[in-house]
Amino acid sequence: MVIGFFGTPQFAVPTLQRVLDSSHTIAGVVTQPDRPRGRGHKVSVGPVKALAVAQGIPVIQPTRLKDPDVESTLRDWRLDLGVVAAYGRIIPEHLLSVPRLGMINVHASLLPRYRGAAPVHRAVMAGERETGVTIMRVVKELDAGAMLATVTRPIGPDETSDVVEADLAELGADLLLRVVEQLADGSLVEVPQDAASATYASRLARDEGLIDWSLPARVIHDRVRGLHPWPHAHTILHGARLLVIRTRPMERTSDATPGTVVAVSPEAIRVATGRGELDILTIQPEGRRPMAAREYLAGHPIRMGESFSRA
User: Fold this and answer.
1) Where are the beta strands (DSSP E) in 210-255?
2) What digits encode the pLDDT tens for the residues 148-172?
């Protein structure tokens, strides 16, 4: 089949590569415009564009998908199918019917749970023990199309969202290729979603990282994992912002006010929470690299009884 590919970040790269390695043809790639990236804010190409250019595939980067030139280009490609993987924008309804067989999407959750922009992060933050990938039909309503196939993956109690997402990208790429083969031979079965069971995974915001120490230790731990690698969980000590990179929840409970340092050792800074205690194992002063607790404490002594704050 002749396929048009919509995608932008690293998550979409394995899917694009699998299709390139298959018997199907990528007619062209639609990806978001180049943007400033990294600390230097230099304009650079996204991962999907980089792969497409390296493979000599036509690339378009529209600022508006409603631009008539976008539909014209897609029609010129004479597509059998559109494949979407983390493109980052809602595709207008009038484009969905341009490919002969419509468009399908690689979505990193077990739909109908976690529709939306940040399904992996939200699942980890919620303490979910399982996630997966759903290949679905792209329809007008966000992530509401019929399910074509799913694959599941457990979430380890200490795994961060970037690790889970990278694994789901590979699983989703394999699953997508199987679905494309079923579409080609007419054996695909489509299952409607149960809209009543749907949940929404909104895009992450920078201010979500501020730790509320009144929450249970396990909840804070899950937020630390889910907010890695951006925007990171963070707290305030002596007026300075500290990123909390790696933690360990403890069942024992202290009578200390949440946010109070109750123990300091070379391995960890132990903090009272609303229920249980939380060991901070890796911490990062703003603008510097992550440090193990031992290294951080060598240059920034913390005493029992001091308190992390929210402001």
Assistant:
1) 233-237, 240-250
2) 999 999 999 999 999 999 999 999 9
Distance of CA 280 to the CA centre of its chain: 24
Tokens of 14: 């394995």
CA atoms of 49 and 30, how far apart (whole Å): 8
Residues 6 or more apart whose Cβ sits within 8 Å of residue 273: 213, 214, 215, 216, 217, 220, 258, 259
DSSP 8-state symbol, 244: E
- Give the Cα-Cα-Cα angle 49, 204, 275 (nearest 5 degrees): 140
- Which residues, other chains included, contact 239 with Cβ-Cβ below 8 Å and sequence gap of 6+? none
Per the prediction, the chain carries an average pLDDT of 96
Residue entry with tokens 């123990």? 263
| Of 126, 123, 125, residue with least CA distance to 134 | 123
Identify the CATH number of the domain defined by range 2-201.
3.40.50.170
Domain 206-299, CATH among 3.10.25.10, 3.30.310.50, 3.90.650.10, 3.40.50.720? 3.10.25.10
Every domain of the chain and the residues it spans: 2-201, 206-299
- Are 291 and 246 in contact, with CB atoms under 8 Å apart? no
Q: Taking Cα atoms as reference points, which of 135, 144, 147, 76 lies closest to residue 116? A: 144
Nearest to 115 by CA among 226, 195, 207: 195
> Do 155 and 164 form a contact (C-beta atoms < 8 A)?
yes
Binned at pLDDT 50, 70 and 90, residue 257 comes out as: very high
Phi/psi class of residue 109: alpha, beta or left (left: φ > 0; alpha: ψ in -120 to 50)? beta
